[in-house]
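Continuing the series of single-chain predictions for the mutant panel. This is the parent chain; the variants come on the following pages.
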Amino acid sequence: MVNWSKIDTVLLDMDGTLLDLRYDNYFWLEYLPERYARQYGLTVAEALKWLQSFSNSLHGTLNWYCVDYWSEAIGMDVEALKLEVRHLVHFRPGALDFLEFLHDNGKRCILVTNAHPKAMELKLVASGLGDYLHARYSSHLFKLAKENTGFWGKLQQEAGLDYQRCLFIDDSLNVLRCAREEGLPHLLQVLQPDSTLPARPRSEFPGILHFDEIMPA
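Parent structure:
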């Protein structure tokens, strides 16, 4: 699935690729609705319905990922709330072994995430992921989400990347499709971003459940 002799740099998504998406799903679908309901005198079901409607109106934009935007919009400190449940930040199964494999084989490892810088740093510290990275980029630096046209050109210019020698791994179909359109030939999709949920269907991209599928025996 991967010809490692042709890959110098691995570009890695964070949430749902290296880190288990269970943390984010729990925060946005359970913890935040409970706290929002408590603050505004709603039922949890009412709070969840409103938050999901608001989230859907932002989907595909950078504000969807922006901690500061959400905090102002809902009148709550989202960063502080995320910190309250940071103990739930965990690597996906096999992710640490894969990062060590990349290190042992001299591959440059770069994080490319839509997460807001505050959320990114929280998770890097909570998980220890930062110790394995050569560089890290939040899409907020470029004022474009990874699924927005123009993002990958800006990243290439900023990081000095040769996309012909890069492997990019993500769980989002929209992000992978944008990357393909902007010149990244080596793409992989993570099919089970949340370890507590069933795997997603396979798509037009090569897909993996676990990183050991692309690590030589």
